[in-house]
Write a structure and sequence with these properties.
Layout (H helix, E strand, L loop, with lengths): L38 H7 L3 E6 L7 H10 L2 E4 L5 H4 L9 H13 L2 E9 L5 H4 L3 H18 L4 E8 L13 H6 L3 H12 L4 E6 L7 H16 L5 E4 L2 E3 L7 H9 L4 E12 L4 H20 L3 E6 L9 H4 L3 E2 L12 H9 L37 E10 L2 E10 L5 E2 L2 E5 L5 E6 L1 E6 L2 E6 L5 E2 L4 E9 L11 E2 L2 E2 L1 E2 L1
Parallel strand pairs: 1-2, 1-9, 2-3, 3-4, 4-5, 5-6, 6-8, 7-8, 8-9, 11-22
Antiparallel strand pairs: 8-10, 11-12, 12-19, 13-18, 14-17, 14-20, 15-19, 16-17, 20-21
């Protein structure tokens, strides 16, 4: 994560409807080839994020701002939302630079990704000097204040960053690990959910791109959290890579996390080389960038790729790895490198080479894989409650829905139905099998979350599009029985 540091830092689709594409849950989106002239166009058409890490003071540089404006649909603060920037002294919060990033995202129609709430690095000394309940209280207070400040603006948070060592153990140089033990991660996630129920909550780390001891340790943590109902929605893979070293198990690794029912994303991509660069190294780098984007495109729950910066001029790499650099897509003079066209070509299998006919969106087809649903037993009798939370921007939104069984009998297999009142459409869903016909939406449980004990609940979410009005649905039915509002 530069501050300069090797590790920093998923999903919302803002333009798919505007591009008059055919949209379906889990389906590819197509647009006329000539319309996709930027990486942002191509990624949006594919239903993916393409993001960059922003230092807001660089927006005064016209070349920097021009690329930032035109090539990306997501932005993350490089350093402006970290602890040392947002709470330099205890309980005295400073949001100036972070708010600049948030304002830029809003003014340019980009998704805003939050980075990061709890990280052992770039931590003020006053935090390091605390211990025990004082440290836990300070951490919870920090998470609560920062997440609340950006509520409704940030779509996702890196809640905890870089918590593991490469051997899969918890890193012993973390103040939080040393003084609070393993439980601090769960505490941070629960505090983040309480502060902003609609934001997706992610754990983020580096050297986790392959199947290895470190990624497996995080996999086991996510599996445990999902089993116990600890809120976690996504996993970030930093992907600070070296040319020629994209892991052979990277796609398999991302997919195994997705199979747990969480989203995945590449959060901090750069691919460095020994400098100076030459044609051969740049060609290898281009092939590697293409490979990473292809991997994300091949995993349906991969939300997208964020490049850790724009230009080699400002890359953190040379300061951290002497003799290495040239890691980004634009060189120090803002000229596109071969990696740019390679990334564009990674979307070739998604964006057609000849203009298709694009009829208006009516009842989108759904191409979800078949799901074997258990038989529904003990449907609730006037015993369900639905909480519907929305984070919206321009013509897009993310909805997070909690379905609670308030009856005295468990539910084994559930179907939730509702109708959109304002012509909204679902563009992507998670933790469910979601279909739509006109305004009517049907949500069925995923294979892993079909059981709701008496008094228990399940969560799912989706991204959607609207035309300027985004009234929330008010009438929900669970297995045919009307539910109350949460």
């Amino acid at each position: 994560m530069p501050v300069t540091h090797p590790r920093r830092s998923t999903t919302l689709r803002t333009a798919a409807v505007a591009l008059a594409a055919t949209i379906a849950v889990g389906a590819a989106v197509t647009i006329p080839a000539q319309a996709a002239s930027t990486l942002k166009d191509l990624a949006t058409a594919a239903g993916k994020d393409i993001g960059f890490a922003l230092a807001p003071d660089r927006l005064s540089e016209s070349a920097y701002k021009s690329i930032a404006d035109s090539e990306f649909n997501l932005v993350v603060a490089e350093n402006a939302m970290k602890w040392d920037a947002t709470e330099p002294s205890q309980n005295s919060f400073s949001y100036g630079a972070g708010d600049q990033v948030a304002s830029y995202a809003a003014s340019t129609g980009k998704e805003l990704y939050g980075h990061t709430l709890v990280w052992h690095s770039q931590l003020p000394n006053w935090v390091k000097n605390l211990s025990g309940t004082a440290l836990q209280s300070a951490m919870t207070n920090h998470v609560t204040n920062v997440a609340t400040h950006y509520k409704g603006k940030v779509s996702s948070w890196d809640v905890v960053n870089e918590a593991f060592d490469d051997d899969g153990t918890r890193r012993d140089d973390s103040t939080f690990q040393q003084k609070l033990g393993d439980g601090y991660i769960e505490t941070a996630f629960r505090a983040a959910r309480a502060a902003d129920p609609t934001a997706k909550l992610c754990i983020n780390d580096y050297n986790t791109d392959a199947i290895n001891a470190k990624s497996t340790a995080i996999y086991n943590l996510v599996r445990d959290f999902k089993a116990r109902g600890v809120p976690i929605d996504c996993v970030g893979f930093q992907s600070h890579l070296i040319i020629g070293q994209v892991p052979s198990t990277m796609q398999q690794n991302l997919q195994r996390f997705a199979d747990l029912g969480v989203d995945v994303r590449i959060t901090e991509l750069d691919i460095r080389m020994q400098t100076p660069a030459d044609a051969n190294k740049l060609a290898t780098q281009a092939a590697d960038y293409k490979k990473v984007f292809q991997i994300c495109n091949a995993v349906s729950r991969c939300q997208g790729v964020t490049i850790w910066g724009i230009t080699d001029k400002y890359s953190w790499v040379p300061d951290t790895f002497p003799g290495q650099g040239a890691a980004l897509v634009w060189d120090s003079n803002y000229a596109k490198k071969p990696a740019y066209d390679a990334i564009a070509s990674a979307f070739a299998g998604i964006t057609p080479t000849t203009p298709p006919v694009t009829p208006p969106v009516t009842d989108p087809p759904v191409t979800e894989p078949p799901v074997t649903e258990p038989p529904v037993t003990q449907p609730p009798t006037a015993g369900c409650q639905v909480t519907y939370g929305v984070n919206q921007w321009n013509t897009g939104f993310t909805a997070n829905v909690t379905v609670k069984n308030t009856s005295t009998a468990p539910i084994n297999g559930w179907t939730l139905t509702f109708s959109f009142p304002s012509g909204q459409t679902v563009t992507q869903a998670w933790s469910s099998v979601t279909t739509q016909s006109g305004s009517a939406v049907t949500v069925r449980n995923a294979p892993w979350n079909g059981s709701i004990p008496a008094g228990g609940s399940q969560q799912f979410g989706f991204n959607g599009a609207h035309s300027g009005t985004n009234a929330a649905p008010t009438a929900f039915a669970l297995n045919g029985t009307a539910c109350s509002a949460g």
